[in-house]
């Protein structure tokens, strides 16, 4: 019988010398929550991120094939003699915030991906021109629409007598690929010509397409002259009906009608073109939706992005002025006209048709959670959307648990603080339900109000209880107390740190009589661990006996920005002032958007040449 390895229940580090670590060795239990503590600069991150995580990630990448490794950044081997008991490691730090202007809270957490699927499956398209709901068109309705167009054209004296009427089947719309086999199969079916990216080609000639570029391919099904359609020519009507049916079959429900040359030499000669759908088209004006699929609602896809701003929402890259076409919504008009038959709340100014995907993305985490909890759908819509709504709700609940209820789903990732970005990634990891991994976190409580600490700690413990090992580099007292095990690095910072001054299960460390002496840098009475000195109550930060009153005040009257509502406050000058409040209350908005920007504007306006700032 095979023996169970002795190190299966622990991670053992021997001879770690990364950065300022002094050849340390430490044992850490697996499937527990471990707090790595110590003064700033003592070597906590060197042990957690640059040694344990780096080695776990490096070994995982090395286990992959050489083909897969070429697409991954391989981390250098840390300066350590040996590490055993490692699992694949996941780092959630504060430096991994996305600066991509396209990234939002909803896209990072994948909530937006599920929303796109939901709108594609149970959304109700409406015509952007007349506002009426668009439903499926039958073959007969498409035929009658074309015949009515022909009838109206024949009445116009300006219409050419030999006007061409071309029926095409849009087989490929905005997709990458070479499509060699597809074109070959079309030739075998008897088709002679296709329109490739607006240019007509004969299928018998050699056609080469770039596999890295998106293409539009329309196969020419049949061509007519307007003169073919007279009252006594029933055969033309039958032939047109057959062409429509063939086009719908080839493209799975789409047919393109071009009244004029399908490849004019000049733009001015371009005729009218209509894309009709056996799925969605307006019966009033002929407006036809493209395929209502998830990519229609993606501003990161050329298929769904606003054509004017390419999905950025602003006039230019990095700008703040909203796009004049989409007004900052970032999506093409068709996507903005697909609605859920629901409302946001009784006081909101909802569109008469319901809620579109941009309306929904404007909600905060808290309001979005309430929306989905109270979402009223038909029985069929409930059955279709049940798995998607379940995933959305679980991710929203995770973010509520880590104290992010105030963030909007549409909030751009590059405006998040490091702590907010880290907690969003943490919520995403909880949603993945991964087990058997090592999670390494860098001060997840940073920027979080004490009111929300319990919710975050509960989230970390849930991640541990799934069967993961949690390493938390942390200074927060609540998080340290909630941990199972503690490794304290010190005793001081830089070259005076890098040693393990205390390690063990937290209950044992708090009660044991550890060897050591009190030193001038403030360690406890019975240990060289400064952290344990404070945890045991042997060290305290004294409350100041006297406080400055300041000289003069800085007055703010009627401050209004974001969630700050007509704020009036006086701030003493020559004193240290702390701006406090729960997460999302408006602290940073007040300090940066009101105080800093107004003082900076005052300086630039009146004191450009002054050496001393005194506005």
Summarize the structure.
The protein is an alpha+beta fold.
Kindly describe this structure:
By secondary structure, this protein is of the alpha+beta class. The protein has 17 helices and 19 strands. The chain has helices at residues 44-62, 66-69, 105-108, 111-122, 139-155, 180-188, 234-251, 333-336, 357-361, 365-373, 379-401, 418-432, 453-465, 477-482, 506-511, 530-535, 587-606; strands spanning 10-16, 24-29, 33-37, 80-84, 89-92, 124-125, 164-176, 193-196, 199-202, 214-225, 254-259, 272-277, 338-339, 438-442, 469-473, 485-490, 499-505, 553-561, 564-572. A six-stranded mixed β-sheet has the order 5-14-15-3-16-17, with helices on both faces. Strands 9-8-10-7-11-12 form a six-stranded antiparallel β-sheet, with helices on one face. Helix 4 runs antiparallel to helix 11 (379-401), helix 5 (139-155) crosses helix 7 and helix 11 (379-401) packs across helix 12. It is elongated and about 105 Å long.
């Amino acid at each position: 019988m095979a023996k169970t390895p002795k190190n299966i229940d622990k991670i053992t580090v021997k001879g770690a010398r990364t950065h300022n670590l002094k050849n340390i060795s430490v044992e850490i239990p697996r499937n527990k929550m471990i707090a790595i503590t110590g003064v700033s600069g003592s070597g906590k991150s060197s042990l957690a991120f640059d040694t344990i995580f780096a080695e776990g990630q490096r070994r995982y990448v090395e286990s992959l094939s050489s083909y897969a490794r070429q697409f991954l950044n391989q981390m250098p081997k840390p300066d350590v003699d040996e590490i055993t008991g490692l699992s694949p490691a996941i780092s959630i730090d504060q430096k991994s915030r996305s600066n991509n202007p396209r990234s939002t809270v909803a896209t990072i957490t994948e909530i937006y991906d599920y929303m796109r699927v939901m709108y594609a499956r149970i959304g109700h398209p409406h015509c952007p021109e007349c506002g009426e709901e668009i439903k499926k068109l039958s073959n007969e309705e498409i035929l009658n629409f074309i015949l009515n167009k022909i009838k109206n054209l024949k009445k116009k004296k300006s219409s050419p007598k030999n006007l061409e009427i071309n029926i095409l089947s849009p087989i490929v719309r905005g997709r990458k690929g070479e499509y060699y086999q597809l074109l070959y199969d079309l030739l075998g079916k008897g088709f002679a010509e296709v329109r490739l990216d607006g240019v007509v080609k004969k299928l018998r000639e050699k056609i080469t397409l770039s596999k890295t570029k998106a293409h539009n391919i329309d196969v020419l099904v049949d061509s007519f002259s307007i003169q073919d359609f007279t009252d006594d020519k029933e055969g033309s009507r039958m032939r047109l009906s057959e062409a429509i049916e063939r086009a719908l079959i080839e493209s799975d429900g789409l047919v393109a009608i071009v009244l004029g040359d399908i490849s004019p030499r000049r733009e001015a000669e371009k005729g009218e073109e209509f894309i009709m759908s056996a799925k969605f088209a307006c019966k009033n004006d002929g407006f036809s939706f493209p395929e209502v699929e998830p990519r229609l609602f993606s501003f990161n896809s050329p298929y769904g992005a606003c054509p004017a701003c390419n999905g950025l929402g602003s006039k230019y890259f990095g700008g703040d002025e909203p796009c004049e076409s989409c007004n900052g919504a970032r999506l093409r008009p068709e996507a903005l006209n697909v609605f859920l038959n629901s409302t946001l709340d009784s006081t909101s100014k909802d569109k008469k048709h319901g809620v579109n995907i941009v309306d929904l993305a404007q909600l905060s985490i808290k309001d979005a959670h309430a929306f989905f909890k109270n979402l009223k759908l038909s029985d069929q819509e409930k059955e279709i959307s049940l798995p998607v709504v379940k995933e959305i709700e679980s991710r929203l609940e995770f973010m509520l648990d880590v104290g992010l209820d105030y963030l909007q789903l549409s909030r751009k990732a590059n405006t998040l603080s490091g702590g907010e970005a880290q907690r969003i990634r943490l919520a995403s990891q909880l949603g993945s339900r991964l087990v058997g991994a090592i999670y390494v976190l860098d001060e997840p409580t940073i920027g979080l109000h004490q009111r929300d600490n319990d919710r975050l700690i509960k989230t970390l413990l849930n991640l541990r209880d799934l069967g993961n090992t949690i390493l938390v580099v942390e200074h927060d007292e609540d998080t340290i107390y909630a941990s199972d095990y503690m490794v304290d690095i010190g005793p001081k910072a830089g070259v005076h740190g890098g040693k393990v001054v205390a390690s063990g299960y937290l209950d044992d460390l708090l009660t044991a009589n550890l060897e050591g002496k009190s030193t001038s840098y403030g360690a406890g009475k019975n240990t060289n661990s400064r952290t344990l000195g404070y945890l045991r109550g042997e060290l305290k930060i004294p409350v100041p006996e006297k406080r400055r009153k300041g000289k003069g005040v800085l007055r703010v009257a009627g401050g209004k920005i974001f969630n700050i509502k007509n704020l009036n406050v006086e701030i003493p000058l020559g004193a240290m002032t702390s701006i406090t409040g729960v997460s999302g209350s408006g602290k940073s908005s007040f300090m940066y958007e009101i105080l800093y920007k107004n003082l900076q504007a005052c300086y630039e306006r009146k004191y450009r040449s002054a050496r001393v700032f005194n506005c």
